[in-house]
Amino acid sequence: MYNAAILKIKLQMKRCKTVSDSYSIL
């Protein structure tokens, strides 16, 4: 359960990074 929570947070961070990256392209 603890491991899954970490993976979920990492996934959200990765998603946020891709969103900010696409914004900087604009």
How would you explain this protein's 3D organization?
- The structure is a single chain.
- This protein has one domain.
- The longest helix is centred in the middle third of the chain and has 24 residues.
- It has 1 helix and no strands.
- With 26 residues, the chain is mostly helical.
In short:
The protein has one helix and no strands.
Rounded Rg: 12 Å
Termini, distance in Å? Answer: 38 Å
Task: Let me know the largest β-sheet.
Answer: none
Structural class: mainly alpha
Number of helices: 1
Shape: rod-shaped
Helix content: over 70%
| Overall strand count | 0
Please tell me the total number of domains. Answer: 1
Compressed to H and E, one letter per element, the order equals H
pLDDT averaged over residues: 84
Low-confidence stretches: none
